[in-house]
């Protein structure tokens, strides 16, 4: 809590080069939109010639100059060496828009200011598209905006596993499933870095709760680490080629993640061959020797107690390092390695020759990307009696109900805040789309304030409005904080806080029940970073949509889905349990731990791996999402394709009357194995767009890693020969085709 308040103050101190260059860049805002064409090729590792130049520069540097480069020089920059033409490194949050510079509250005038940016849908909404190409497009647009705003490093994507629905930061993350994360993160990183800036994938590792995040020690099995918590990061580094990575606040097996020998030195740098920069989370370094020796390359955000005049030389990786090197306790080569990594990324992203792309921000193209992601990320959870889509010719009056219908979210949630040029709320989106034909009435329904209970007067107004309308649309769910300074007062999806439970806050259960009673033709739209307890009303409501925090065009996308201009195609990237008590972190493991340690005794049984293996029915399963059309699956063939590879082929047909997209999912299960394996695991998927009546043969090749498990006895991945089931379907619990093969 303290940290974040201080971070806000730090942001106000940002009279730094980033802010200045951003102002200068306003003129460039109408520059070209990011496109796959014309991208510079960026080599993961410097060429020999570049490495030689780096070596030469290091030779010319004094020890003081080197040490200056490995710690912050302001809240979001680290030191440069002007005499050698080495610039400061300018970082910025992240992950769904370039953060504002001042930490001021919402600017009601919403003028186009130099630190505005496109507010993209949050990470979990992007993941719900199951469309890696959209990840690439959103990443590209973010990269272009980072360039225009003078940033070198975009502090995102955030990809920690969604282990419990209570984590306040789930909205910034992607999924409970490592395979889905891997596919989405690679696309996003490649998009960002195609613009010549650096992605900073975060928070490495196991930041799966915000409670006690600054000191909690995470204990998990090696198998859980390898099968669940590492693969997303591995893909980000080895496939996505992320230039930088951020160490998490928490501890892992007794040592802080940011300076963790096993995670950083052994796995990241040695096993995966990472050549880029390990950046600490802000204030996550605690020990100079550990940071130096275990692989931290750049220390940011430390010693907030020094505000308002921080002395950056007093950071753990500041003057102390000078003394240690001078006294011979630490070798200069250790410092050189960190400087080399920073310079390598500077050369790679053309910071050294000022050759960076100009970028663009707040462009129509970027807003369109945000809209498209929202259109594909919003999930239709339930659609009984075909209440949706609404028809603007037959629906004359709609009662729009709920405080979230008119709420702005861009500045919510903590460090991921964005000063959005504008933000189309659900209510505004409906007005824009159908306001001329359909009478829209609005009732607030509930009050957003911590501890607020059902308000009989607001509920009565809402029920009255619903009774006089053809359809009621309730927009509710979770909230971010509204204003940076007070976001915790009413925040459920926010940094440094977890949700107290899964119950609907602010008396929304009572509201929904009263509205449905007044008008059974009710649709509930839920905002938020994940599931909420719907059991008190779910069976009585015919239509339910999960809208996450869908970015600045979210209201447009939602209105188009409600009125059928867009056919929904989002799928849940996490299971929605019926009750908090069903969640494996709570049931098998510990959450939030005893204040010192949290033991992940749930092991590999995270999300659907648990629900399906332990036969616990979720309310809405992983991979679930409805469409206004229907899809048929047929003609499955599962054939060997080279050593330990299998080709899975099947046909998907649009059997309904509207064009639409289906995410065809392939799960694998080993029938018998010497170790416990989950009932099913996602190993491939493809999103297919089909006109009515059209079909497509989907061909997916699964590699060896789709069949392996991590053996703790052998300390390696093992493919244990046996029969494997191939489950193909529309969600983890809507399996349409099944085949098997011996390997
Ligand atoms: C957050 C990071 C963020 C950093 C800089 C930290 O509190 O955990 O995600 O990038 O602040 O704002």
UniProtKB/TrEMBL annotation:
Residues covered by the Fibronectin type III-like domain: 662-732
Single Gene Ontology BP annotation: carbohydrate metabolic process
Annotated signal sequence range: 1-22
A Pfam family recorded for this sequence: Glyco_hydro_3
Keywords per UniProt: Carbohydrate metabolism, Glycosidase, Hydrolase, Signal
Molecular function GO terms recorded: beta-glucosidase activity
Gene3D superfamilies, alphabetized: Glycoside hydrolase family 3 C-terminal domain, Glycoside hydrolase, family 3, N-terminal domain, Immunoglobulins
Protein family according to the UniProt entry: Belongs to the glycosyl hydrolase 3 family.
Protein name, as recorded: Beta-glucosidase
Organism: Dinghuibacter silviterrae
């Amino acid at each position: 809590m303290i940290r974040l308040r201080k971070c806000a103050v730090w942001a106000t101190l940002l009279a730094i080069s980033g802010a200045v260059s951003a102002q200068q860049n306003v003129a460039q805002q109408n520059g070209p939109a990011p496109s796959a064409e014309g991208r510079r090729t960026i080599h993961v590792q410097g060429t020999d010639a570049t490495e030689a130049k780096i070596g030469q520069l290091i030779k010319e540097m004094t020890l003081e100059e080197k040490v200056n480069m490995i710690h912050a020089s302001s809240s979001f920059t680290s030191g440069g060496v002007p005499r050698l033409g080495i610039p400061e490194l300018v970082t910025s949050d992240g992950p769904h828009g370039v953060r504002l510079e001042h930490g001021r509250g919402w600017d009601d005038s919403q003028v186009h200011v130099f630190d505005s940016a496109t507010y993209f849908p949050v990470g979990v909404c992007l993941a719900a598209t199951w469309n890696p190409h959209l990840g690439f497009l959103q990443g590209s647009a973010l990269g272009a905006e980072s360039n225009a705003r003078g940033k070198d490093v975009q502090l995102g994507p955030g990809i920690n596993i969604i282990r419990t629905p209570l984590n306040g930061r789930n909205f910034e993350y992607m999924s409970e499933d490592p395979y889905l994360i891997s596919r989405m993160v690679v696309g996003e990183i490649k998009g960002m870095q195609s613009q010549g800036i650096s992605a900073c994938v975060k928070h490495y590792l196991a930041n799966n709760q915000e409670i006690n995040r600054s000191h909690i020690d995470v204990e998990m099995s090696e198998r859980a680490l390898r099968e669940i918590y590492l693969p997303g990061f591995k893909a980000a580094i080895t496939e996505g080629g992320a230039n930088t990575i951020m160490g998490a606040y928490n501890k892992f097996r007794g040592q802080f993640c940011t300076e963790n020998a096993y995670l950083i030195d052994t796995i990241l740098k040695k096993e995966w061959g990472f050549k880029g920069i390990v950046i600490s989370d802000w204030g996550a370094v605690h020990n100079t020797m550990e940071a130096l020796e275990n692989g931290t390359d750049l220390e940011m955000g430390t010693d907030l107690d020094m505000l308002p005049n921080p002395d950056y030389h007093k950071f753990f990786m500041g003057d102390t390092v000078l003394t240690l090197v001078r006294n011979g306790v630490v070798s200069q080569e250790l410092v050189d390695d960190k400087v080399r990594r920073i310079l390598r990324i500077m050369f790679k992203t053309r910071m050294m020759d000022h050759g960076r792309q100009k970028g663009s921000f707040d462009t129509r193209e970027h807003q369109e990307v945000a809209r498209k992601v929202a259109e594909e990320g919003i999930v239709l959870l339930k659609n009984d009696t075909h209440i949706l889509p609404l028809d603007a010719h037959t629906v004359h009056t709609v009662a729009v109900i709920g405080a979230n219908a008119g709420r702005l979210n861009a500045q919510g949630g903590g460090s991921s805040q964005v000063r959005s040029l504008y933000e189309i709320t659900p209510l505004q989106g409906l007005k824009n789309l159908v306001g001329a034909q359909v009478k829209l009435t609005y009732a607030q329904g509930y009050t957003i304030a911590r501890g607020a209970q059902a308000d009989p007067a607001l509920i009565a107004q809402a029920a009255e409005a619903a009774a006089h309308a053809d359809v009621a649309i309730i927009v509710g769910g979770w909230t971010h904080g509204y204003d940076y300074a007070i976001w915790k007062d009413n925040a459920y999806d926010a940094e440094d806080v977890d949700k107290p439970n899964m119950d609907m806050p602010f008396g929304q259960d009572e509201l929904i029940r009263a509205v449905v009673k007044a008008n059974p033709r009710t649709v509930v739209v839920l905002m938020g970073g994940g599931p909420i307890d719907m059991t008190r009303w779910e069976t009585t409501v015919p239509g339910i949509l999960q809208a996450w925090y869908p970015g600045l065009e979210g209201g447009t996308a939602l209105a188009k889905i409600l009125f059928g201009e867009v056919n929904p195609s989002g799928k849940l990237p996490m299971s929605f349990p019926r009750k908090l008590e069903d969640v494996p972190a709570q049931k098998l493991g510990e959450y939030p731990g005893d204040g010192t340690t949290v033991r992940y005794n749930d092991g590999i049984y995270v999300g659907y791996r648990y629900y399906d293996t332990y036969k616990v029915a979720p309310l809405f399963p992983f991979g679930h999402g409805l469409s206004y059309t229907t899809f048929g699956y047929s003609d499955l063939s599962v054939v060997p394709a080279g050593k330990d590879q299998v080709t899975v082929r099947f046909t998907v047909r649009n059997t309904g009357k509207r064009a639409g997209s289906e995410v065809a999912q392939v799960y694998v299960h080993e029938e018998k194995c010497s170790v416990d394996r989950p009932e099913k695991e996602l190993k491939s998927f493809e999103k297919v767009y089909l006109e009515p009546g059209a079909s497509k043969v989907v061909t997916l090749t699964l590699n060896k890693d789709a069949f392996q498990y991590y053996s703790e006895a052998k300390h390696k991945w093992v493919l244990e020969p046996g029969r494997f089931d191939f489950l193909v379907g529309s969600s983890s619990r809507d399996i349409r085709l099944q085949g098997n093969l011996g390997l």
